Amino acid sequence: MRHCRPATTTYLPNKIIALLAFTITPLLIILSFAAGRITMLPMPAGVHEMLKFACCSRGLVFPQARSGDPESWYESKSIGYVDMLTEIYADENKEIRWALTPSVLQHVGSKSSKTNSLGKYKYQLTVPRTFWNFIFEENDVKQLRWEHQQQT
pLDDT tens, 18-27? Predict the structure, then answer.
């Protein structure tokens, strides 16, 4: 900067440059990580191939002709968390995982593979009960109802 504009030396001393480089820059990097990937680099709307072990809400969509396959497979396993079983099923059957953006699912369960601990206090909500998909809340109910009626 100083090579291009020597006049900046008067209002950009070395201390200011050092402050910007070694204090504010790391703080901005920390802030971007704290804000999260969804905030900083959101997925564009539509259907995209989901990375293996991606997170978090999972909903399965199968053609009606194939819906019996995963159903009988889940019943044969009889125990386990649905999100983990979904990953296992996809791996065993070499399925491609697809992500739909914006999300059309909301977690409403009281149990999850993440953790089921109560936290510090006995009457505090379990961790899964505190999960909330805020993007889901941006869906327009009337628009979704209209789209559903068009499909049925």
Answer: 888 999 999 9
